[in-house]
Here is the input.
Amino acid sequence: MLSSGRKLGSYEILSPLGTGGMGEVYRARDTRLGRDVALKVLPEGFTRDVERLGRFRREAQVLASLNHPNIAAIYGFEDSGEVQALVMELVEGPTLADMISRTGRGAESAAGNAKPIPLEEALAIAKQICEALEYAHERGIVHRDLKPANVKVTPDGAVKILDFGLAKALEGETAAADISSSPTISRMATQAGIILGTAAYMSPEQAKGKSVDRRADIWAFGCVLYEMLTGKMAFSGETVTDTLAAVIRAEPDWTLLPKDTPTHVRVLLQRCLKKDAKQRLRDIGDARIALEEVLSGVAKEQMAAAGASRPVWRRALPWVVAALCALVAAGLAAYLYFGGAARGNGANVTLDVALPDGVSVLTRDSPNVALSPDGKEIVFMGAKGTVSQLYRRSLDEPDAEPLAGTENGLGPFFSPDGKWIGFFADGKLKRIPADGGRAQILADAPNQRGGSWAPDGSIIFSPEYSAGLMEISGSAVRHTKSSRRTNPRASERIAGRMCCRTAKGLFLPPECPTARRVTTMQRSRCIPSARRKFAC
Here is the structure.
């Protein structure tokens, strides 16, 4: 520890600011330029560590290549013989961790004085974080240790991301994980496959010691945004091992999000926190655009326009159909199971379903309890600790049993013969034998809105919040005729293909394997001419 008043070159130590994995940080005075700076000093005990010293010098080079208002700047490198230090911008103000007022980590934070950040303020901070990461990612640099403690907010509301000490200039889109000199793992943990970053904000691929790219930062951004909005970590545990297990297997408690959280923000969080990196949001710039649309009110206007563009009967039709199906199913089940008794004395029949010890029924956007066609079995989505899955109970048996292979499952529904159970999990539509067995993947459903099994054996489901209905018949997946967004009077031709205009943008035909939605901001790039290529 350096004492106050000590000089390193032209810098005079004023006071300690903190200690991190990459060294000690001090407030210092630049006597030549008359300004206060932050000195990040590598502890003397590590100066003989060639790998640690190499990482320290790399940090200087990486930070020197970044010049952005939302990234803490580096002013120089001071080598005073036995002491070596980075000269960095001194950022005043609290960290996000301070603003959230978290008093502990893991299980302690859940019972601490956690305080969510107001929605508008949180979204404004998140947008600036996106801008900083977008700038770094465009230059091939990944932070790899983004967390509330590494984000400061100045008194005037400007965001500064600190400590790109783990950043690694990529040679390609997916460089192998550099596992040396980790600031959160001991120095001895320098073998291949060792985990980097703070556990609660690490992506699943980081937790498994796999190669990482910019999508690791996108995951961490999702964790930070979730924590700002809820005051709780998205993933936590009593030990590092428990936390890593939660990162790999558990889902955040989405019910903790404020009720006024916009749908666009909820969808953004879900896409950022996809455990499969291939299903995760691809570019942090897309997150910035989504937040800008929410903050400006454009997202709300788009949703209102989309709703108003549909006839009243079409907007109401899904709810009417759902209500009728629920009434018919409930009536049929009651008739089949309790029909005799009900006809005998006309009395009401009440059925109590006891849950297994420690299991609670989860309620989300879609129905999470299903009754078999013969009314003799129920399936529901239950949670025990951090693990959620489907449970099945025969009404003539006392206990419900978990269905193996349905982890993270939701929105269950039975086949007409009761032999299969359809459900959604991990961005996929799946099915599993009702009496247990191996789950089968049927189709992609990144943001499902429910499904139903038709009498002819086909499955009708909605894979996205704003998508039409899809139908699975045999091995074919296609849009249902009633949900295709076609309008012959509003169609245009793009690159030789027919493109249909709707209130939400331009769409290529669903049958086309390269079909992609064209967002409002991209609409101007779609030219009704076969001479220009479709570039969205």
Summary: Residues 462 and 469 are 5 Å apart (CA to CA). The two ends are 55 Å apart (CA to CA). The longest strand covers residues 11-20. The chain has eleven helices and 27 strands.
